[in-house]
Amino acid sequence: MSGDTLSKGLIEIKPNVKYKQVLKRLATNDILKNAGCDFDPTSTVTLTERILEPEYFKVNLQLCKEDFRSDWEAESMGYSAHDELPKTFADYMISYVAAKVAAKMETNIWAGATANNGEFDGFEVLLASNADQPASQEVAGTTLDASNIVAELGKVVDEIPNALFKDDLCIFIPISAYRLYLRAQAALGFIDRFNNQDMGDVMFDGVKLVVCPGMSDNTMICTTKDNLYFGTGLVSDHNQVKVIDMEDIDGSDNVRFIMKMSAAVQYANGEDIVTYGITNSAN
């Protein structure tokens, strides 16, 4: 599983969040009124906020160099008794660990739950208690297949408020839904349309379909990209793997691989979201 949501910039990334980031929300009622001589406030201004609070995570792995002395990697360790982990294997482990973390972050962003070790609340959990979402914008889901995917996508589009139709409006869907949509289009004879398109270039009723590998099957989320946020301390922390040879520290033959990072997600305007297959207990 690839970490497409972050690597492709599918949602807004807020770096340099050490503790908390406040997402300010401003609301007004009808702002334009008939003119008069006196100053008369034309609207009330309501400020509310949502909190983006990253949680801290780590990766701690340990290997013993002894495991490599008797196999084909032995020569690359050097001939001294004070040998090193084979560089090719160290490079592989660095890329392996970083890729595994990226895949886990992708799942956490959409389907994570902070109650589980190594996870934070993803959008599916957060939107399950979205008090700002109108009940009509919570579309009941079903098990998607090639015969109903077009109709179910249509249900989501039907509930999008007119004011939300903008250039960056997207329907975020899991890979399974995307594959079903392609199969449905193939059955209708339209598959040639998609042969030279990336997964982020497919449209449905004028709304872009964005494929997010971490989303749960039979779910969809429709909103604008700038309404969904990922917060972290440093983005580079998610790609930095430290390799520590413990021989000079404690005399052992162990090599440790370490990562540390922080992460969380949050939405700004709950009323600007249409969900599918996510039961909202606050409605």
From TrEMBL:
Q: Which UniProt keywords apply?
A: Plasmid
* Protein name as catalogued: Phage major capsid protein
Which source organism? Lysinibacillus pakistanensis
Its taxonomic placement starts with: Bacteria, Bacillati, Bacillota, Bacilli, Bacillales
